[in-house]
Amino acid sequence: MTRADTLRAFKRDGRIVIVGASLAGLRAAEALRAEGFTGSLTMIGDELGEPYDRPPLSKQVLTGWVPADGTALPRRRDINAEWLLGVPASGLDMAGNVVRLADGREVPFDRVLIATGVRARPWFVESEAALDGVFVVRTREHAEGLQRALAAGPSRVLVIGAGFTGSEIASICRERDIPVTVAELAPAPLVGALGAMIGEVAADMQRAHGVDLRCGVKVTRLEGDAQGHLRRAHFDDGSTIDADVAVVALGGIRNTDWLRDSGLAAGVWGIACDTGCRALDINGLITDDVFVAGDVARCPNPIYEYRLISLEHWANAVEQAEVAAHNMVSAQADRWPHLSIPLFWSIQFGANIKSVGVPTFADEVVVTQGSVSDRRFVAAYGYQGRVTAAVSFNNAKWLDHYRQLIETAAPFPPLCPTPDQPVDSKPVPVDFPGPALIAQGATVVVTGNAPSERRVTSLQQHHR
Amino acid sequence: MTTTQMPDTLRRILDYSSRADPYPLYAELRRTPVARQEDGSYVVSTYRELAELLHDPHLSSDVRNLAHPMRSHEGETTPPFINLDPPEHDRLRRMAMRHFGPPHTPGLVAGMDGDLTAVVSGLIDGFAGKEQIDIVDDFAYPFPVTVICHLLGVPREDEPKFHVWVDGIVNSIDYNPKIDPKEKLEKGLQARKDLRQYLGGLLEQRHGRAGDDLLSRLANDDGPDGRMTDEEIVATANLLLIAGHETTVNLITNGMLTLLRHPEVLQRLRDDPDLVVPLVEELLRYEPPVHIIPWRAAYSDITVADTVIPRGSQIMLMLASGSRDPDRFHDPDRFDPDRRDNQHLGFGSGIHLCFGGPLARRETQIALTELVRRLDRPRLVADPPPYRRSPVLRGPIHLQVEQGTG
Amino acid sequence: MRIVVDLSRCEGYAQCAFLAPDAFRMHGEEALMYDPSPDDAQRERVLRAAAACPVQAILVDQLEGLEAPVEASPS
Whole-angstrom Cα distance, residue A168 to residue B154? Predict the structure, then answer.
């Protein structure tokens, strides 16, 4: 058989398994069928029920407008798949081409797509996390529980972590007229993603909406009463606050644990892959039959010096799913690279915050349009003299222009004035907090001397 | 990539003789996506470049940023928001939007269905017994005029008065000192003055008097941005009055013309009224009511399609050409209401996207559905029909249709 | 019915919020919040909203009327 024959046969009656039945998994399945794949398709997901959309969980669902079970994703086509739901995958055997499930079943494949996403980082003390009134928000069950707690009219909500999710939840609390305290270790909200200048804007915005914002503090203890209800939180500065609901919004943990012994380049930072979404093995060699998409994928981006970047962005999941699906059923010469510029949005305190590019890949930031005090503006991020990202507050209609600046490596700061350029705008250092996020310690060691012997071995590690 | 080329093409497009079918000339124009004209202005005609420019913050809508200001805007001290840049544009548009759409008045347009249907039904009732109807005079003009008058709070019976002014203004939008008689400009300038004076008179009566119409609301509203000055209200009302009917008349008429040219689609619409929704979107792509944004100004040097447009240059945006660009749309010259990929430029894009788009859509959807439902075997009397002068707001001046046994 | 809006494409034109105000709401000037499972009574309006989106960011379920495509099958 020629290679083309093999591919045709695979497209006709091959076996594809998709691990992860959320946005990326579903979109990949739809794309596979759209590409003409008629073989068997198996969807493996640890949650019961149909694939659903997560962004509304920290917004419309928490306001009480949309029920938590009302975010099932619309379908673009019938995917005619076998669904194995409610059981997580527990291992991947690359030699045997088999996915193992936690209940012991084995699912064989010719090609597999890994789209297992992230889960919420739990509160670090298990007994405190178990208190009534302590929540994380990732699944619809989480959102439903928190919505009910908010509807009950808590005396105060404590949000731990002022990233996007934490800030959105604080915004909903204020919308529902619930007193809310936000505790953030960094000097300002959103600072880890968008830097100090935008962080300051976000801090002002929160305070203007009545949030009790406490930055540079760490929550050390959650205290419950005899009935196991949350009552109080303790901070590292010795202060305390009474609250009956706490939302732990400390980001996510990538679901790669199940791949620990698989031989893939998988770890806390995700699963490394090429721009075609093919996974790398632990030695950095490309695999042929294992693909990755969505929040777990860690993909090189040529615009950003080919650095491996993993993104928890909705559009990224959709685009990678489509690229991965295409490449799974295409000949080498027809493969697509995933090269799009990251896009992100957050809705909070009446503001539409959008970003394009990778704001953390920057050394300076400058407000290019609009007014920061009105919270209607665009800021451009630059790295060594070129534009690498932009953020807009209620000014999204201009953002596509900045995408082009990024794609064309336009000079930073942008040279040409616009009619709404602020008079006093000057680039300032972008100022991200410490290297903690970047340096997570060693994850592998290299052994062997001769080129044929050199191999990488994974270090057993714990999540931060 | 781009040099002065075929200055003739634009001239031929603007010439009245090509009004019935400018599309082959647009195709000719698209061979040079960004074409510098002899007078130093630029014409942009391809989808990608148009979309890029409509989102480019260096493109100004303020006539004061043109190196050679437009004669047709002389004496305009308070421009409407369509002719302003942020932040002024945003502020005025936001203040006007408070009384027309979301977030402050979200249900207004969706709540107008009953009124719109009533006006449409009344006009079609008037066709009874007539074998020949002028879709423009008997329907597509009076319908949106009635609606916008009601919304703004302009007496419907004043229409004959302001019609003359609006005509003068519309005819001078594309005034070109090289080819047009000076009279066209002067008429336009006088008409602008007259219409403003008229609207100013209406506004005076609204101060301190609550009312549901836009003039009353603008006159008495104190929103987060404060209150518009009287000059700003007049400029806004002026813009909405003109845009509120001069464009919709074309969309409805172009729609009926296109349906009569595609009888199989007309029949489908009769059988399945829901088809009107994608059909109107396709119409906005295929026969849009606004063909050209006659000018924008380069606020700084702008690079598009490898061409540097120097600061101060006048830029003409050929929206209708972009919506027929084969590099963007499959089989673009085919009218296909089933088209799925249809991100047309019919209402523009970016911050100046048509203010009244949702209303125009509903007006046209209801109008076409009802016309098709109630006209008895409609037939075109003349194809092509006679067109209005304007290459900018392009559409038939009359559309004679026969119905019934004939 | 089921819908999803690609909010990374959304530029806040609010056309959907005009045409189907019960399913699409502006949160402030530019941010869109929507009901991912609007009542079937909203259907006509939601389809109008989806068609009118200037950036074509609204996806409406294409499988409607077909049988529920998922069966949970934990063995």
Answer: 44
